[in-house]
Each structure stands twice: as C-alpha cells, then as structure tokens.
Amino acid sequence: MPAKKSVSPRKPPKRKAATPVARPYHHGDLREKLIAATEALILERGVDGFSLREVARRAGVSPAAPAHHFGDTKGLLSDVARLGFKDFGDALLEADRRGGNDPAKRLDEQGIAYVTFALKNPARFALMFRHDKYDATNEALHVVADRAFNALEGAIRAVQGLAPTDEMTEDAYGLLLATWSIVHGFAHLALGGELDDAARTRGGKDAILKSFLPLALKHRPIPSPRK
Amino acid sequence: MPAKKSVSPRKPPKRKAATPVARPYHHGDLREKLIAATEALILERGVDGFSLREVARRAGVSPAAPAHHFGDTKGLLSDVARLGFKDFGDALLEADRRGGNDPAKRLDEQGIAYVTFALKNPARFALMFRHDKYDATNEALHVVADRAFNALEGAIRAVQGLAPTDEMTEDAYGLLLATWSIVHGFAHLALGGELDDAARTRGGKDAILKSFLPLALKHRPIPSPRK
DNA sequence: TATTCAGACTTGACACTGTTTAGATCGCGG
DNA sequence: CCGCGATCTAAACAGTGTCAAGTCTGAATA
Q1: Which of residues 153-172 of A touch B (CB under 8 A)?
Q2: Number of Cβ atoms within 10 Å of the Cβ of A22
Q3: Distance from A33 to chain B by nearest Cα, in Å?
Q4: How many CA atoms lie within 13 Å of B105's alpha carbon, on the beta-carbon side?
Q5: Chain B within 8 Å of A122 (Cβ-Cβ)?
C-alpha cells in the first residue's frame, strides 16, 4: 500500500536536476529507460520471463506508465526487436564488406556473423524470431528486418553470378534457403542448449563458436559447381 | 458454495457408466484427458497461449486438479513433450528404415521426415524445443529425446563408414551438426512464418513442404568426398 | 462386515500478470 | 498567466499458477 510516499513527504526533486537540457519530457527519458530495462530483463529471465510490470518497477514508474509510450506490451517489445534487427543488419552488412570481392567469402563471413550475433545477443535474437511477442504489422520493424535479410540474399546472388535485378533462379533460391537454414538452425540449437552436452565434453564453454561452428560451416551449402 | 450439486440433486452417475473396467481412479481417466486437452490447446493458441486453468476447464475439473497428476504446469508439459519426442523418434526411425541400405538415402529420408514432422505437428515440435517450458531433468523425456537424436547420428555414421562403436571423427561431427542445423533451421523458419511471404508468391500454402524443402535439401551437406 | 486410509478432487486464498479508467501533475505555447 | 495536452499515478478488473485445507470415494485391512 501507500507506505513510502506518505511516510516521507519530502524530496521534491524527482528529476535528476543535472543537465536540465535535452530532456524532452518533464519526467526524464522514460522511453529509453524502459527499452534498456527490457533488454536487461529478457537477458536475465528470457523472453518469456519478461513482465511489463517488472520493467516499470525497474524504471521507477507505475505499471501503467509504459502504455503511453508504447501502447501495450507488444509495442514495447516491437521496438526492442526493431533495435535488435538494426544491429543484426549492421553485423551482417559489415561481415559482407569484410568479404570484399570474393562472393564465397562474403557468404562465409555472413554465416559466421549470423551465428555470432545470435550467441552474443541471445535474448534479442530470441525475441526477434518470436513473432507472437511483437506487432507483426510494425512498419519500421519490417524495414530493418528486410534490410538484414537482403544482405544474405545479396551474397547469394553474387555467388551465383546474378545481378541484383535478375530474378532468382530455383537453384539460387534453394541455396539461399539452405544457407539461411543452416545458420539459423545452428543458432537455435546453440541457444536452445542442444549443443551444451557436447560442448562440455569437447572443449570449454566457447567450443560452440570456436570449434563447432567452423566444423559445421565446413559443410555449408556451396554453389552448384561443387568444387 | 456448492451450487451445482445442491441445485440439482439428481444425476448420480458422474462416471460414464460404460466399461466399468480398466478405470484406475474413481473419477475417470483424467490424466489422459488433460494431456489431450493440452495438445489441443497449444495447437489452437500456441505454446505460450497455454493455460493450466483453461486445460482444467476443458477437462471439467477444478484448477487444482491437474497438480495431483503432474505436480505443476511444467510436469504436464513435460509429459506432452515426452509423447512428442516419442512420435518424433518413431517418424525418424521409420524414415531411416525406408532408406534401406543406402546411407545417403537414409539421411535424405530422415531430413524430410524431420521437417515434415515439424510442419505437421507444429505445436508439439515448438514445445519440444522450448526447454524453459518443461522440466529438463525429466529422465523419461531424456530417453526418448536421445533416441530421436541417435537416429540421426546413426545415419551420419553409416554415411561416413563409421561403426556404431567408433568414435566420431571431427569431420563426421561437423557433418552431423550441419545436417541437424539445416533441417532444424528450415523447420524453425517455416514454423516462424519466415517463409510465408515467399510461399504466397511461389505456389500455394504447401509450397514450403512440396517445393522449398526439396530445393533446400538439394543443397544439403554431403559427405567429404563431394560427388 | 465395519473401519480406516490413502488417493483424487474441490474450495478458497494469495501473489502475480496486462490493461483500462479516471484523475493528478507538470511544462510549454498561446 | 493560463489553459491544455503530454505524462504519469492510483485503483480496479479479469486472468494466471500454486498452495493449504478440507471433502469425497473406493478399496484394503481388522
């Protein structure tokens, strides 16, 4: 019940009083605070351990406060997912750049980056692929998600000798599916703990990224003229 | 409080009165009823839409009744997952048998069976790989899960010319990881709706199984001496 | 046959969740 | 200077899982 407030009627300065500039609303940067708290919470307890009330609690506001910034729970999680897709796309595009002019290397680098991102950002990655947890019709989210997907498709096109405007051949589409599947599947197996037993017996905790991933990617799908 | 009973003092036969034999408890086969209701519910609303109270409601018992048979929610879901792994293993082993003496065909058939099971039993499959939803220490569950996994490993061994007692080579383990990843990833992408857009433009709703899967599996990992 | 007794189930409560409603408070622009 | 809209709180509602107690029942025991 209302213990805290009625007991100590002092402390008028609710806001931090420092840097009175660049504080768009009269109660601080709640929006960003909620997002940060959400990312921390799903990292701690998983996507399903998330609770809107807990996030509000950590941000020091009432349970209903987030509604004004995000509408509802899905609105908040949509924004967190959007940020995740942004960073995910950045990682893939940077890996693509590392591949230089070698299409096969571009694909290799992206595959490694895909799984690495998933394992380094387990909570975000899990959320990103849980469509039931956020609003699927969110436009801004679709944009960054497509951007990440197109990075992969671009490398597939290059490795198949297709121009960006060419229509995908059946074979190229199959290669795209196979490549996406293998990295996505590996990420899910790793995040699901499916490889933990093996990792325990075959090297330390980071055996998954350092050992298993290269081992698996050695068998990754390759373009039609198999070398 | 007891509205129902005091209002209508009739209907003494609470149990079905038919087949008075093989009814171990005095109120019927609640255990199986709860499991059936659970499978129906997660099929309707997804794994996260599950609710213990709703299941109890559908089985016509009080919210606390399931506790006596399964302990808690995780106990119930563990049993449902166990049954899922049982059928999953059956499907994989049957596919393995269809492969006959051709190790590559055994692998092919298992891959198709893996994804097919996932798409035909989306709710069960989703639950099976959501370790947070059930009790990981459940022994009976581990047994059937390992059985399914070993079906895949067996075919990998055969295709690599390894005896069941031989230690896995690094290359064989990489092939196992890559194969598992590609089918698991494809299943997750399909169940996550990630392929729905493409399926809509490239054929009907079952384009995923009929068209995409063969296309992707054409690029599946193959044993070292690439043909 | 009568009585005990453990298993199966209900009742009622507790703490928690997300969301809605109405109201309080603050700061900016007229 | 003052209203007004953006921001947040308080209280309530329906829903959740789980627990402690109590009720009922069928079968084995004395």
Answers
A1: 170-171
A2: 6
A3: 27
A4: 7
A5: no
Q: Are B73 and B53 in contact (CB under 8 A)?
A: no
**Tens of pLDDT, residue by residue, chain A (227 residues):** 333 333 233 233 333 333 333 334 456 789 999 999 999 999 999 999 999 999 999 999 999 999 999 999 999 999 999 999 999 999 999 999 999 999 999 999 999 999 999 999 999 999 999 999 999 899 999 999 999 999 999 999 999 999 999 999 999 999 999 999 999 999 999 999 999 999 999 888 899 999 999 999 999 998 764 43
Provide CATH 1.10.357.10 ranges for chain A: 81-227
Quote the CA–CA distance of A165 and A171 in Å, as a whole number: 16
Q: Is there contact between A41 and strand C, defined as CB under 7 Å from any strand atom?
A: no
Residue A226 near chain B (CB below 8 Å): yes
Q: Which of B169, B219, B220 to mutate: most A Cβ within 10 Å?
A: B219
Report the alpha-carbon distance of residue A184 to residue A126 in Å, rounded.
11
Amino acid occupying residue B163: A
**Cβ partners under 8 Å of residue A50, min gap 6:** A38, A41, A42, A77
Contact call for B129 and A188, based on CB within 8 A = yes
d(CA B40, CA B23): 23
CATH architecture of A25-71: Orthogonal Bundle (1.10)
Residue type at A223?
A: P
Q: How is domain B78-222 classified at the architecture level of CATH?
A: Orthogonal Bundle (1.10)
For testing the chain B interface, which of A112, A219, A220, A224 should be mutated: the one with the most B CBs within 10 Å? A219
